[in-house]
Amino acid sequence: MFFLRKTTMVKFGFILGPAGSGKSLMTAALHHWMELVELDVATLNLDPGVKVLPYAPDIDVREYIDIEKIIDKYMLGPNGALMAAMDHVLTVIDKIIDDIEALGPEYVLVDTPGQMEIFAYRQSGPVIQKLLLGNDNLGGGLFLIDPTLATTPSSFVSILLLALSVSYRLDLPQALLITKGDLVEAEFRKKIVAWSEDPEALYLALLNEPHQLEAELGREITQVLANHGFIGEFPLVSAETNENMDVAFGILQRMWGDDHQVFG
Ligand SMILES: Nc1nc2c(ncn2[C@@H]2O[C@H](COP(=O)(O)OP(=O)(O)O)[C@@H](O)[C@H]2O)c(=O)[nH]1
Ligand SMILES: [Mg+2]
Q: Which end of the chain is more exposed for a tag (fewer CB within 10 A), N or C?
């Protein structure tokens, strides 16, 4: 008996961001929305340490990696075990790729590990991402910003710098989204939109902070962010109310270079 392997290109959306920024819930919400508009989408959980997820992953790294066993075998604490587990993912990535090929979806949403640094800053993360994309597939990253942690200009700038750093680590087009839009009050919404769209507004806001960055550093940082696309129109989305899921998908489509069927 012959199995015909689907060799069509897969479009990967990597959901990135610091711990608690809403990656898993965004994966769930975007997956739900994509299914509603009848797109052929699968979810991939890459977090070996996560206990409960707000969606049932189609492909799950936990099927191949048991963090409790790693803790026992190497006598590691939770952080060490997570790092070891992420490095172990490399040894099972061919199984995950086989699972994706067996399912043959057009789109895969990748829920990256809760602790962003084990994906972005360990050696294994960028390698895993490259192996998933191979030569033929397309990838784009959505970096989530939790607005409840970006209430001051300096905390917002710190998260933008983190996004910049992650985009240097991962060789992937990346866009920024402000999540948890349902928790953002109208007044703050205006403020964060102004900071995110206008480097000058952000710079002036930095200067007005009591604990301010040295003016020259603030100027240079906002210029670097602006010059590299880390200041711009970042949509506010909500994985609770599904606000702007169509826009988030439209952004992924642009990163994939999909011209047709653009949403948002
Ligand atoms: N209100 C609200 N809560 C959210 C939203 N997205 C995530 N959360 C909550 O934020 C917390 C962290 O979300 P999670 O998806 O686990 O973050 P992760 O660590 O980045 O995967 C959870 O309690 C979520 O329910 C959102 O859009 N609105
Ligand atoms: Mg998560």
A: N
The residue whose CA has the least distance to atom 14 of ligand 1 is 22
Name the region of 44 (left: φ>0; alpha: ψ -120 to 50; beta: rest).
Answer: beta
> Could you tell me which residues are beta bridge partners of residue 139?
12
Distances (CA, A) of 30 to 42, 86, 215, 241, 252: 11, 25, 40, 11, 11
pLDDT of residue 233: 84
Whether residue 1 is predicted with pLDDT greater than 60 in this model: the reply is no
Does ligand 1 have an atom closer than 6 angstroms to the CB of 49? no
Residue 259 — pLDDT band, cuts 50, 70, 90? low
25 CB near ligand 1 (under 6 Å): yes
Task: Report the alpha-carbon distance of residue 264 to residue 257 in Å, rounded.
Answer: 15
Ligand 1 in contact with 241 (CB < 6 A)? no
Q: Nearest C-alpha to atom 10 of ligand 1 is from which residue?
A: 22
Going along the chain from its start, the domains and CATH numbers come out as: 11-256 (3.40.50.300)
pTM (predicted TM-score): 0.94
Q: Which one of the ligands is nearest to 57 CA?
A: 2
